[in-house]
Amino acid sequence: MKTNPGRFFEDYRLGETIIHAVPRTVSGGERALYHAMYPARHALYSSDAFARACGLPASPIDDLAAFHVVFGKTVPDVSLNAVANLGYAEGRWLAPVYPGDTLRSESTVIGLKENSNGKSGVVYVRTRGINQNDTVVMEYVRWVMVRKNRLEVPAPEAVVPDLAKVVVPGALVIPAGLDFSSYDFALAGEAHRLGHYEIGEKIEHVDGVTIEEAEHMIATRLWQNTAKVHFDATFREDGKRLIYGGHVISMARALSFNGLANAQMIVALNGGAHANPCFAGDTVKCWSEVLDKAPTAAPGVGAIRLRLVAVKQGAAPFALKGEDGKYLPEVLLDLDYWALMPV
Amino acid sequence: MKTNPGRFFEDYRLGETIIHAVPRTVSGGERALYHAMYPARHALYSSDAFARACGLPASPIDDLAAFHVVFGKTVPDVSLNAVANLGYAEGRWLAPVYPGDTLRSESTVIGLKENSNGKSGVVYVRTRGINQNDTVVMEYVRWVMVRKNRLEVPAPEAVVPDLAKVVVPGALVIPAGLDFSSYDFALAGEAHRLGHYEIGEKIEHVDGVTIEEAEHMIATRLWQNTAKVHFDATFREDGKRLIYGGHVISMARALSFNGLANAQMIVALNGGAHANPCFAGDTVKCWSEVLDKAPTAAPGVGAIRLRLVAVKQGAAPFALKGEDGKYLPEVLLDLDYWALMPV
Amino acid sequence: MKTNPGRFFEDYRLGETIIHAVPRTVSGGERALYHAMYPARHALYSSDAFARACGLPASPIDDLAAFHVVFGKTVPDVSLNAVANLGYAEGRWLAPVYPGDTLRSESTVIGLKENSNGKSGVVYVRTRGINQNDTVVMEYVRWVMVRKNRLEVPAPEAVVPDLAKVVVPGALVIPAGLDFSSYDFALAGEAHRLGHYEIGEKIEHVDGVTIEEAEHMIATRLWQNTAKVHFDATFREDGKRLIYGGHVISMARALSFNGLANAQMIVALNGGAHANPCFAGDTVKCWSEVLDKAPTAAPGVGAIRLRLVAVKQGAAPFALKGEDGKYLPEVLLDLDYWALMPV
Q1: A79, A283, B101, B270: least surrounded by Cβ within 10 Å?
Q2: Which chains touch A (3 or more CB pairs under 8 A)?
């Protein structure tokens, strides 16, 4: 077999590091496409002049675009035979990515737990995105349920990593030079600074986007994510193409501009759940909740911890979970992240 | 409220200048996307070598792409609560925009007139697009009908600006260095120079494009135009997404290459009307009429004033207005502009 | 008539060279779009770092993207009135194309043969893509059946060029500096080197992509290919838009990564047939057959000759031709090319 059948649960070894293929040099092309796929408007990622006024050398590639590039490379090795993408934790952006940078990805297996049915198991990997200077630009833990192929292989010793519920503020990495002390609120689009947000405050982000097949496939291909289920209408029995969860993440984050225009840089991904599948024709909207706030050592820069919830048509305001504690069917995404905001 | 509800008629003050948010650095990515969205083929905007042979330092971003970037920024402040986009006047391109340039927009309110029903009013703004060197790269006047929110606010004194019906040839700004004296007609695609066009001549541009939802949304997002009506299929009662008028402008201009390949640079927008709405599934075609010609001071460079009419399927040849003087239902756009052409 | 009606069979003269219009400067934007339209993952075209480790100055634009740019320019002069695209031969990539390069195209008429019905004829052209330094970056022969307009024009003397069935290995041009002696198989995605492939071996490439109207139009416009039939749903009687054959070529080539990840650079196009039309909604899959192998003079670099067959939904494994020797209705493309691979 010359083609890659993907790894099955029994193919992973605790502690092994997988070098993911197909490094990627990003350019202004990726930036333009990201802004064409999502209504992304955070000024720091739109304008070199604005980024320079904030102490950076130029406008970086959107943090989530960098995430998608890093994530996409892991798909052939981690999730080709995945039944479900179960969670994220301990995600941190460690250095901005600029046009001209080349990214590659590596993942270390940090946990393995076979399911009691013996037909699948949970694989925990810590993935690192690394640039051409060997700088780690981001890292995150992800766990997926993967099918077992050779059912006769004995279960490995169960190891479930002890993962932080949230990245503590002291662990957030602020990009070198970042300075919001002369931040231009007019150009950024809103006057709200960190002090204007209250913990517990919820924001309905108003705007919505109806998703088309061409769009999510274009985006997902750009990240070189190869999972069949996103592209091949003959693959699922219902003839639907499942939209890459990351497409919903980026759509929701971009829509959250309206009310969170100054939540500029994403620096940590505390957790996330793809609550329900998203398909073409769905209209995505979102709301946010302020979960926490923290100071940072950088001038004028604070951190805001946000829950970002993406919902589809028919969702009630601030829809999340039902009385049974389960996500409501209109909820697509429940994400928990830290962003940097002028204080 | 953290989200932006948009301005209502009573929120505008005569003479005020609005700084629009989200400056944008453009790159080869925006250029490639523009050429992927529209069948744009004017050689000066396709080839650095061709542009240099015409005296420019490199191939600029298409003039209408620059217009869309500048225009898109104004939407959250000017047309979020607009009932109708009524007109354009006195538009001039003042300097080419190159990859690497950063654009921002400002608008000054130059006219206000409440409607007699007291529920809406017309707002006139003069918008300027400004680059990272504080050079004004373009300006235009646009007027829109905007809803009133607090109906009890007294009407402002009515001020309707006196706008030029057409930008006079002497006011056209020719890019520094532009020289068409050794213009390569073979590479440009057609042999027709300014002298070959007669005032009153009409050209049927032959080609047509059927528009898809994904395409107009991708384009409109790229210009960071956020008007819900273009993206959210649940917003209008009929479930249709209205296509951004600028998408039709760019589509028609690109289609007009076939017959006007040498109408290279757009230097003025005299006026324009979005005659009827355009929706996905419509097939856009166009025709042009030569309205005027003028010399310029630049070597080998003349100016041609053109009417560009976009129509959809079912339109008769050169369709425009009915006997009642109103636009025919198949007419989408009636645009009046000046372009530069080799003499 | 200001618009271009295209050339008819009687308009071609043996030996004449046609300068095609609209030169094009490519950038990272074209690269990003190519990777967004097709699941292209060959590392040499994805990463500057990988390309440099292979002795090139940077990552080139995908070979087929360069082909499409060159090909697209020929459409207004060669195939606007074509009834059928009959074949390719003697295609060679002679120099990589990098972001910043400007391409133009020229074609020489090397054969003419009027059909016995007197209503059409076959035109053979040798097309060259040329960069800003006047370096020929690729050349290929293509023949098309073109309608005759003035049926009374006498048939030209029939000249059918003697075309090579296959580009011989000695005629393959290896990019200067190319060196696969320290090729990184892990980053490239597969461990298979030239020695692992057997002549006659067939590979089912597993993945499939369902094509959308927006996608093929975006791609085809990017190459400035203007043929109405791809864009205008009112043009064909059945209301379908025919997908540009090159879209299928690129889709299949990208899908063949899974099993041929190390077939990095395409250096020759021996032949090709668009066996059946492709329409939006079709799901494209592909298979390959190893036709030949050859050494090259470059360190660590071998050549592999591959048949690439694209099929649509419903195709049997390795579908190609029926008992009547004709292509099966599910077969879209049968391409024969040489690629460079580490030995």
Answers
A1: A283
A2: B, C
Count of the separate structural domains present in chain B: 2
For B228, which residue in chain A has the nearest alpha carbon?
A: A207
Domain housing B15? 1-26+61-151
Q: Is there a single domain that holds both residue B251 and residue B342?
A: yes
* CA separation, residue B138 to residues A6, B69, B171 (Å): 53, 11, 13
Question: The CATH number of the domain where B67 resides is what?
Answer: 3.10.129.10
Q: Do C2 and B30 touch (CB under 8 A)?
A: no
Residues 6+ apart with CB under 8 A from C200: C289, C290
pLDDT reported for residue B30: 97
> Hey, are the CB atoms on B104 and A188 less than 8 Å from each other?
no
Nearest to B4 among A37, A196, A258 (CB): A258
* Chain C touched by B289 (CB under 8 Å): no
* A259·B235 Cβ contact <8 A: no
Residue A145 domain flag: yes
Distance (Å, whole) CA B14 – CA B122: 12
- CA-wise closest residue to C226 among B46, A218, B219, B254: B254
Here the ipTM equals: 0.96
> Does some domain include residue C307?
yes
b/e sequence A290-312, b meaning 16+ C-beta within 10 Å:
bbebeebebebbbbbbbbbbbbb
A108, with CB counted inside 10 A (0-12, 13-18, 19+), is middle
B335 and B209: one domain?
yes
**Structural tokens at position B306:** 């053109």
Same domain, A160 and A264: no
- How far apart (Å, rounded) are the C-alpha atoms in residues C59 and C265? 11
- Say which of B3, B132, B218 has its CB closest to residue A205: B3
Pair (A205, A288) in one structural domain: yes
Q: Using CA atoms, how far apart are residues C340 and C194, in angstroms rounded to an integer?
A: 9
Query: Would you call A136 helix, strand, or coil by DSSP?
Result: strand
Identify whether residues C282 and C299 lie together within a single domain.
yes
- Interval B89-98: pLDDT, tens: 999 999 999 9
**B316 belongs to a structural domain:** yes
User: Looking at the partner chain, which of C27, C99, C241 has a beta carbon nearest the beta carbon of B210?
Assistant: C241
Decide if C52 is inside a domain: no
Clarify whether residues B138 and B246 are in a common domain.
no
Q: Which segments of chain C have a pLDDT < 70? A: none
Contact B132 A209 (CB under 8 A): no
pLDDT computed for residue B128 by the predictor? 98
By the 8 A CB rule, do C37 and A218 touch?
yes
Nearest-by-Cβ selection for A228 from C33, C35, C208: C208
Q: Which residues of B touch C30 (CB under 8 A)?
A: 28, 32
**Chain B neighbors of A43, CB-CB under 8 A:** 21-23
**The pLDDT of residue A83:** 87
The pLDDT of B74-92, averaged and rounded, is 93
Q: Are residues C100 and C239 in the same domain?
A: no
Q: Between chain B and chain C, how many beta carbons pairs sit less than 8 Å apart?
A: 139
- Nearest alpha carbon to residue B101 among B132, B70, B126: B132
- End-to-end Cα distance, chain B: 57
Can you read off the two tokens belonging to residue B48? Answer: 């650095």
